[in-house]
Amino acid sequence: MGVTQTHLFTEEQNELANLAKAIAHPARIAILQHLVKTKSCINGDLVLEIGLAQATISQHLRELKDAGLIQGTIEGTKINYCIHPENWARLKSEFSSFFESYSACGSTC
Amino acid sequence: MGVTQTHLFTEEQNELANLAKAIAHPARIAILQHLVKTKSCINGDLVLEIGLAQATISQHLRELKDAGLIQGTIEGTKINYCIHPENWARLKSEFSSFFESYSACGSTC
DNA sequence: ATTATTAATCGTAATATTGCAATATAATTA
DNA sequence: TAATTATATTGCAATATTACGATTAATAAT
């Protein structure tokens, strides 16, 4: 045990859960907020901005990249990360439709 | 190690990450979708609906309750769960403002 | 009172995540 | 080429999560 039984759920449910998991850590929230604010940034900035070790930041960046939320372009020895516009929009719309499926009116609890 | 260093982050970042974590599992997404659809439901329904064991569903329900996303009222031997309207609205608005902080126009990647 | 029904809790095993030091890789500069 | 700089990867330890059987608690029905 200890492994999520993804086969029990729909593609949509697993996808939404994975997207949520990608942002389910304050460091990754902080990274995304920094990317949004500065429009782009390099890995080293984040190590200073956030107090975590370089290896840890790199790991969080990879998770965000794997989830498709950010992309990086090589600039010399540095790597310039930024939000992935299309996937960000998709994330936003998937969460929106999830949240909006509930209209608070007729709750019988 | 293995423990998230919450002290490095703002209240807002930790809160958003925790809310994301609450929905970062397909079973919890499925439970919420079922609650949205049926307006209310009991634990036993979910055990049939989803293929997980009763103890596992109960555990997921507690996580959703701890995050404030659902509430339950006792009805005889059963417990009737439903979405927590105010907290759902808060969740929705926090995610909205997070997603909308990024406007896709000026990305320089 | 005893028995059924329903859900929560406990205990435990398996797996995942978080974090970092050390090392490796890749591009730049002297 | 060698040294430097910046990031990725590896290996490992600590902690968290997921899942479920067994048990418990609380109410309902007989």
UniProtKB/TrEMBL annotation, chains A, B:
It holds the Pfam family HTH_5. InterPro entries: ArsR-like_HTH, HTH_ArsR_DNA-bd_dom, HTH_MetalResp_TranReg, WH-like_DNA-bd_sf, WH_DNA-bd_sf. The keyword DNA-binding applies. Keywords: DNA-binding, Transcription, Transcription regulation. The keyword DNA-binding applies. Residues 8-103 form the HTH arsR-type domain. Transmembrane segments: none annotated. One of its GO terms (molecular function) is DNA-binding transcription factor activity. This is ArsR family transcriptional regulator. It comes from Algoriphagus boseongensis.
